[in-house]
UniProtKB/TrEMBL annotation:
This is Peptide/nickel transporter permease protein. Belongs to the binding-protein-dependent transport system permease family. It is a multi-pass membrane protein. It comes from Thiolapillus brandeum. GO terms for cellular component: plasma membrane. It is found in: Cell membrane. It holds the Pfam family BPD_transp_1. Keywords: Cell membrane, Membrane, Transmembrane, Transmembrane helix, Transport.
Length: 317
């Protein structure tokens, strides 16, 4: 009951955040986004034809009216029809979001689990060659652009000039083996880049925790390394780790796979968002921005609840 009350209270306080994000993004879309009028009217349009198209697109409405209509779409989860394809935006999201999740979840999970494991090893052997080797590899992962990694991995694993083991582009998935063929190279690219950032961050958190009095005492009493790392260090370092993981989720779900989907030709929500940006498809952009803002508020709520689960001293009041 306490958690339910807290979640409700937190969601209500998150409403100004949603309004702020959607207002700024809507302002940018309306005044600085592309105008699709002249794409739709054809050559040599009359003023009446231009006015008719602008009316159909809703461009002739006052800004406040258009923004309130947008908020209504967000509350009812009905974002209308895509300007480019005429398909319902909800149908597009229902088709593409599962593909993006299937694409990004393996890399996201592996990147974090391996990052925590490598950070524990590096922190436990702090200053020794294991630590230097892992941190050196992390710097390499952080230094190389994600775009370069994607292209390099495509050449190495997918092209005829490389190993040619996996498809270069596309998403023809009908069974589990198809899924592995299409998801392996994007996952390897994601893990390669994520490991650098995750390992360095998690190592810094764990090293700080290793300097606590209770850890030194446990070590002095001869606590085995496994128990020391997982029970006395990792458990108490979970709050910053949870924070990093949770705040990555909205971007990963909605827009984090944009580069992957663009370069691998995978029809997920990232590719749809990219196409909407280049064509000025406002209904899709409004849906993606609004849902991302709502997801951030939901993540804020879940984040604090997870804090409470891993550390009973945290209060939800």
């Amino acid at each position: 009951m306490e958690m339910l009350q807290y979640a409700l209270r937190k969601f209500i306080t998150g409403i100004p955040l949603i309004i702020g994000v959607t207002l700024i993004s809507f302002l940018l879309m309306v005044y600085f986004g592309p105008d699709k009028t002249y794409e739709l009217v054809g050559k040599n349009p009359t003023p009446e034809q231009i006015q008719e198209v602008r009316h159909q697109l809703g461009y002739d409405q006052p800004f406040v009216t258009r923004y309130l209509e947008y908020l209504k779409e967000l509350v009812t989860f009905d974002f209308g029809y895509s300007d480019s394809t005429g398909e319902r935006v909800n149908s597009i999201l229902a088709r593409t979001v599962p593909i993006s999740l299937a694409l990004i979840i393996p890399g996201f999970v592996l990147g974090n689990l391996l990052g925590i494991a490598l950070a524990l090893i590096a922190a436990y052997h702090r200053g020794r060659w294991w630590d230097k080797f892992i941190m050196g590899g992390s710097v390499v992962g952080m230094s190389v652009s994600f775009l370069i990694v994607i292209i390099a991995f495509q050449v190495i694993f997918s092209s005829n000039d490389g190993l040619g083991w996996f498809p270069v582009r596309g998403w023809n998935v009908y069974d589990f083996w198809d899924y592995l063929r299409y998801v392996t190279v994007p996952t390897l690219a994601t893990v390669f880049v994520a490991l650098g950032y995750n390992t360095r961050f998690y190592r810094a958190v764990i090293v700080e925790e290793m300097g606590r009095d209770h850890v030194r005492t446990a070590k002095a009493f001869g606590t085995p390394p496994g128990e020391l790392l997982f029970k006395h260090i990792l458990k108490n370092a979970m709050i910053p780790i949870i924070t990093r993981i949770m705040f990555s989720i909205p971007l990963v779900v909605i827009s984090g796979s944009l580069l992957l989907e663009s370069y691998f030709g995978i029809p997920g929500v990232g590719l749809v968002t990219y196409d909407a940006i280049t064509t000025g498809d406002q209904p899709i952009l409004k849906a993606v921005v609004g849902i991302t803002a709502v997801l951030f508020v939901v993540v804020l709520i879940l984040n604090d609840i997870f804090y409470k689960l891993v550390d009973p001293r945290v209060s939800l009041k």
